[in-house]
Specification:
This protein has one domain. Helices cover 21% and strands 16% of the residues. The protein is built from 1 helix and 4 strands. Strands 2-1-3-4 form a 4-stranded antiparallel sheet, with no helix packed on it. The radius of gyration is 26 Å and the shape is rod-shaped. The chain starts with a helix and ends with a strand.
Length: 107
């Protein structure tokens, strides 16, 4: 009777250990809603930057998740208004096209 109880307890401990061990290696989904550094895009140099750029000395417009950023742009074309970066820009001017952008709303 005592050995059956010990085998049962050992089986439970082994099963519990396997569950914990396997869950420790489970990959978590990346946080897509991380705060970003948002900069206003300028279009005043179309020869060198036809897709717009971040001017030298441009301050961070906002540091927030995309959904929380209030666009400073009026209704207009679908040009990029703000571009978001994972970290502050250190090299200006910056013509990097990012997938994180807020465009001017369409009419």
């Amino acid at each position: 009777m005592k050995s059956k109880l010990m085998y049962g307890l050992a089986a439970l401990l082994l099963a519990f250990g396997l569950v914990l061990g396997l869950s420790a290696f489970k990959q978590s989904a990346p946080n897509k809603k991380a705060p970003m550094y948002w900069y206003q895009v300028s279009y005043d140099d179309p020869v060198n930057y036809p897709d717009g750029y971040i001017k030298s000395g441009t301050p961070v417009y906002d540091h927030a998740e995309k959904e929380q950023v209030e666009s400073p742009c009026a209704v207009g074309t679908e040009l990029d208004c703000l571009r978001g970066f994972d970290s502050p820009i250190t090299n200006f001017p910056d013509g990097t096209l990012t997938e994180n952008k807020i465009q001017k709303p369409a009419n």
